[in-house]
From TrEMBL:
<dbReference type="GO" id="GO:0016835">
    <property type="term" value="F:carbon-oxygen lyase activity"/>
</dbReference>
<comment type="similarity">
    <text>Belongs to the GCKR-like family. MurNAc-6-P etherase subfamily.</text>
</comment>
<dbReference type="InterPro" id="IPR001347">
    <property type="entry name" value="SIS_dom"/>
</dbReference>
<protein>
    <recommendedName>
        <fullName>N-acetylmuramic acid 6-phosphate etherase</fullName>
        <ecNumber>4.2.1.126</ecNumber>
    </recommendedName>
</protein>
<dbReference type="InterPro" id="IPR040190">
    <property type="entry name" value="MURQ/GCKR"/>
</dbReference>
<keyword id="KW-0456">Lyase</keyword>
<dbReference type="InterPro" id="IPR046348">
    <property type="entry name" value="SIS_dom_sf"/>
</dbReference>
<feature type="active site" description="Proton donor">
    <location>
        <position position="85"/>
    </location>
</feature>
<dbReference type="GO" id="GO:0009254">
    <property type="term" value="P:peptidoglycan turnover"/>
</dbReference>
<dbReference type="GO" id="GO:0016803">
    <property type="term" value="F:ether hydrolase activity"/>
</dbReference>
<dbReference type="GO" id="GO:0046348">
    <property type="term" value="P:amino sugar catabolic process"/>
</dbReference>
<comment type="function">
    <text>Specifically catalyzes the cleavage of the D-lactyl ether substituent of MurNAc 6-phosphate, producing GlcNAc 6-phosphate and D-lactate.</text>
</comment>
<dbReference type="GO" id="GO:0097173">
    <property type="term" value="P:N-acetylmuramic acid catabolic process"/>
</dbReference>
<dbReference type="InterPro" id="IPR005488">
    <property type="entry name" value="Etherase_MurQ"/>
</dbReference>
<dbReference type="GO" id="GO:0097367">
    <property type="term" value="F:carbohydrate derivative binding"/>
</dbReference>
<keyword id="KW-0119">Carbohydrate metabolism</keyword>
<comment type="pathway">
    <text>Cell wall biogenesis.</text>
</comment>
Length: 301
């Protein structure tokens, strides 16, 4: 690994913004918007690698494994964002999808940039989570050369865990440590080297895909509805009622009654409404079909 960063695409100057400091506001925003479109196109090009990652993560979680996102700085924060949304959106245990960030939790709101240079710490932080070969580790680094996630991914590989890398440069260092490298080439940033921009946008898109597609495959979604949403406040209870109305074709009042009987759990409430069964019977049906709602509601009774 060379000490210079100038060879990295993410560190090169964007010719379209050489005169950014002389642009009008609308000119500046227009070029930023144009460049942001490139993030989605770059993600589209790596869909085969993302597919491989989703399928491996799904099988690992089905077998009792966990998913770890490891990163530093912006990359670490993206991992925290995605991991923290999984429990309320899909009602999974917080331990199922975890973020491991250089500098610890405090680095989410306060920059601790020097922490990213410690490759050994990446290994130690994963070791502290008692990583096993059943787990999956995603190392996130726009440059592809950040020591912290590289150390974590190298350790994960030695432990037999499935390894995925997420970077924004061709033939990146972290890709060499990954069984499934995902290189999203978005090109130079509008603000030279500021990978919180296009690079982070592209990586957020990929993480959205990983967690959402995996949870769909695990049966956490029915049609396109969040049937495992954790309805623990007013907004989410109202959303749960809307989901029931859509899924079961019922009225607001019937949805509200079913949700109460189902102890604010959407899945059994849908089974109750569609199959005309009790809460207990709905639970047995779901258990018999591995928690997959479609299989439960389509089963012969």
């Amino acid at each position: 690994m060379t000490d210079s960063l100038t060879y990295l695409t993410t560190e090169q100057r964007n010719e379209r913004t050489i005169h950014m400091d002389q642009m009008t506001t609308v000119e500046m925003l227009t070029v930023m918007n144009d460049e942001d479109h490139k993030a989605a196109e770059a993600v589209k090009k790596v869909l085969p690698a993302i597919t491989k990652a989703v399928d491996h993560i799904t099988e690992a979680l089905k077998s009792g494994g966990r998913l770890f996102y490891v990163g530093a700085g912006t990359s670490g924060r993206l991992g925290v964002l995605d991991a923290s949304e999984c429990p309320p959106t899909f009602m999974v245990d917080p331990s199922l999808v975890q973020a491991v960030m250089a500098g610890g939790g405090g680095a989410f709101t306060e920059a601790k940039e020097n922490s990213e240079d410690n490759e050994k710490q990446g290994r130690e932080d994963l070791k502290a989570r008692e990583l096993t070969k059943q787990d999956v580790v995603v190392g996130i680094t726009a440059s592809g050369r950040t020591p912290y996630p590289i150390g974590a991914l190298a350790y994960a590989g030695k432990m037999g865990a499935f390894t995925i890398s997420l970077s924004c440069n061709d033939h990146s260092e972290i890709s060499k440590k990954a069984a499934c490298p995902i290189e999203v080439i978005v090109g130079p940033e509008v603000l030279t080297g500021s990978t919180r921009l296009k690079s982070a946008t592209a990586h957020k898109m990929v993480l959205n895909m990983l967690s959402t597609a995996v949870m769909v495959k695990l049966g956490k979604v029915y049609e396109n509805l969040m049937v495992d949403v954790h309805a623990n406040n007013y907004k989410l209870r109202e959303r749960a009622k809307s989901i029931l109305m859509e899924a079961a074709g019922t009225s607001y009042e019937e949805a509200e009654e079913a949700l109460q009987k189902a102890q604010h759990q959407v899945k059994p409430a849908i089974v109750m409404l569609k199959k005309k069964v009790s809460f207990q019977a709905a639970g047995r049906l779901l258990d018999a079909h591995g928690g997959k709602l479609r299989d439960a509601v389509e089963a012969e009774t």
